[in-house]
Amino acid sequence: MDLAYIISGLLVGTLVGLTGVGGGSLMTPLLVFLFDFAPKTAIGTDLLFAAITKTGGVLVHHNKHQSVEWKIVGFLALGSLPASLAVVYLLTYVMEKNDGVTQLMTTTLGVTLILTALSLIYRSVFTRKSHEIALQRKTHHERFGRWQNLLTVLTGIVLGALVTLTSVGAGALGTVVLLFLYPRLATVRIVGTDLAHAIPLTAVAGLGHMHMGNVDLVLLGSLLVGSLPGIYVGSYFSAKIPESVLRPMLASLLILIGVKFVL
Hints:
By secondary structure, the protein is mainly α. It has one domain (3-262). The protein is built from 10 helices and no strands. The chain has helices spanning 3-19, 24-33, 39-65, 70-94, 99-135, 148-166, 172-181, 187-211, 217-237, 243-262. Helix 3 (39-65) packs across helix 6, helix 6 (148-166) runs antiparallel to helix 7 (172-181) and helix 7 (172-181) packs across helix 8 (187-211). The mean pLDDT is 81.
């Protein structure tokens, strides 16, 4: 195992614990720009990394808080898992393995990072509006009525494609969309539901990338060794650092990285 990879895992894990933002938006750019990994290897390795690290969070949300809406998870997965498999199939058997595919993945990654940054900036707006709607005596299924389940499946399709192409989006983007679709749900239930959906999605996408030869297992092990204690440390200090300071700084960083990927 490489000490530099372990330290990187520790750094990203700490930031995830501090901000609650998924590691994909931080880990993948770090592997590409700092360690010069090919984007496809960084994406594939990070997907399995996310599937493993998020499992502990779901166990806490399900067993301790009972904060997972499994019905919503099911509708999201109904869209995201087939979309993920479709993208893996296209990357493996349809698209030629050339610079064009790499450019598609890096450009999509850059756009997704920028969208993630914007979701961080405006997340407080969605949260506030969710609380306002919650004060009205409506259930969380009444925003779109009979279209609610279909829109949830469509959301899953978009997330499935984005996450498989970039390893980014299952965390910050997924949370913001759920806040919009289900304003009546408490934030802890939004987070728990988003985490529960992210595990099968990142696992399926990660295994697909492993099939394509895009996963570095030694790198994966090193990142896990550093990230697991990092998440604990970050979570411990998260209450001591104002969110109003952390989120704008992180969003600015993601925008700069995203622009670099796009250009």
